[in-house]
Amino acid sequence: MFDFHCPECDRRQLLFSSQVERVINDDQGIAVIVRCWCGELGAVRTGAKRASRGEQAPGFALAS
Question: Which of 16, 19, 39, 47 counts the highest number of beta carbons within 10 A?
Answer without folding.
Answer: 19
